[in-house]
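Q: I have 228 residues here and want to know how they pack in 3D. Can you give me a structure?
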Amino acid sequence: MRKKAKKVGEKGEKKHENRGRKQRYRLLRKVARRFEKEMRKKEPSKKALALVFNDLYTLATKDQLTGVFNRRSLEEALGREVIRAIRHNLPLSVIMLDIDNFKEYNDKYGHSQGDNALKTVTRIVELNTRGDDFVARYGGEEFIVILPNTKIAQAAKLAERIRTKVASAIIRATREDLPKGFEKVTVSLGVAQLSEEGVKEMLDGADQALYEAKREGKNKVKIFKKKG
């Protein structure tokens, strides 16, 4: 029975992902048609073209569901910030965040409710970060926050603030017949700082710290501490 339930959940996730890709493709085609329509005019509107290019930029760089940056944008931003940190001898930290038991939440309450949980967590992260910080969806229910000019102790305080805000937040219901418990999720967070070992160690360190938070019961913040 357990294996069967897992397969059903996996099919639901795949169907949900495919629906998201189709929606993204439809939006891209819609933007392309707007561009073609404008370019057929004798005098294309600069304002209309600017809106088209802005929409294309959003589709290319942002996660459609949550509105934060996507993984490709994250990789580009991380490269820029690492170079800047090294060049100017500035601290650079990252927070890796994962929603606890998210697959079970999706299976129990449905993908629409899961989307609401993702949006709620994203909004909390955005409200508690600075304009210079970079928030991105790393994949699924996992997010990364790049924190320029931030030492690991400051990053850990921010991570703890995000953790408590998420734990106390109420997630809006997508329908009236949801089983009890839909209104709450928690997150686990791993924190690491750039060192002379480079960006890979920082990301691996944040990932290790996140894994430790999960292993110790979830809904925790853990700081990566280099052995030796």
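Q: Anything worth noting?
A: Residues 2-61 form one domain. Helices lie at 2-39, 46-61, 71-88, 102-109, 111-127, 152-168, 199-215.
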